[in-house]
Design goal:
Elements (H helix, E strand, L loop, with lengths): L1 E8 L3 H11 L8 E6 L5 H16 L4 E5 L3 H6 L16 E3 L5 E3 L4 H18 L12 E7 L17 E4 L15 H11 L18 H10 L1 H14 L9 E2 L15 H4 L16
Length: 280
Amino acid sequence: MSIVRVISYGAGVQSTAVVLRSLNGELPLPDAVVFADTGWEPQTVYDTLEATRPLIEAAGVPLLIARTGNIREDALAEDGAGGRGRFAAMPLFTNNLAGERSMMRRQCTNEYKIRAIEKMVRSEVLGIKKRGRVPKDVRVEQSIGISTDEASRMKPNRRPWIDNVWPLCDMPQRGYPLFNRAKCKSWIDEHHPNILVAKSACIGCPFRSDAEWREMKIERPDDFADAVDFDNRIRGLAKMESPVYLHRSATPLGDVDFSNAADLGQGDLFDNECEGMCGV
């Protein structure tokens, strides 16, 4: 059996720790690092990606960029996903017919991250042509940067030829210590103080707590203005059957009062991100 190791890289805190610890010899060196670019990541994510690029390449590991499209442009396009004929729904908030708030079914993680990475691994890592089959004696071990404090997000891969592994929280039997998010951050600060990391999530991702929206509004006002503009525009789309919103209150993002967000104690919605591929 041939094992091919890849790291699903989101350029957030945890996945950056996985990549750098692999380069440092603390985790297995991958055959490739794959970054899924949704086209609407915050600049901090792209900065982290570029800061780690020379280290990855110096180790002789290919850094592959997987792109399906631009999630912002595709969502706002009336002809489907940027002319591709389909729209991968974001988990937007809306009010149902009974007036109850609900979250729409989410397809964006599968479309812009999972499938994008799978296609890249098949074509560029395994060298399999379109419609070709993965040999039965080949297994892909895909490392995902989920830490112990987010272990509920660990899910098996749907593809029979891919085994998801989580080196931060499920490999003590292999001699790898457990890591939570804070430990990932402190490890990066100690070993690579020049690399700044933050959560990896699309600028307009609805899986944000009020504290995170507040932080964006204060620390990254351009990103927040971009999210507000997107939030306003999605309610004018004919393809939406009812008004949709980025904020969990199902009200316009620009109208939400985040002044007391730090005191509200609202949890991080990423625990509900069932594919476990975002925010790392």
